[in-house]
Amino acid sequence: MKIQWTSKASSDLVRLHQHLSPVAPEAAARVVRQLANAPGRLLDYPRIGDKLEAYEPREVRRIIVGDYEIRYEIANATIFILRLWHCRENRSFYSET
Can you give the pTM of this predicted structure? Predict the structure, then answer.
């Protein structure tokens, strides 16, 4: 398997960093690093995340990393990182994929 970040997920990382860095630049960098590295564990355990039934027949799952949710899809031999959110964010504002 391989991991592929969608453009929306990459933009989410940038957005989160821009939101946090004015207040706490070191914490912003640490959080972004943690979120960027978290999907690596999916290579060994791709189905560790909770399955989101609403997306069937697609296999969309989520993992929680600290206060953040990472949504991903398993398709063939690829894990697509779809979106990243802070758990307190209003997710209905953003489209999923």
Answer: 0.89
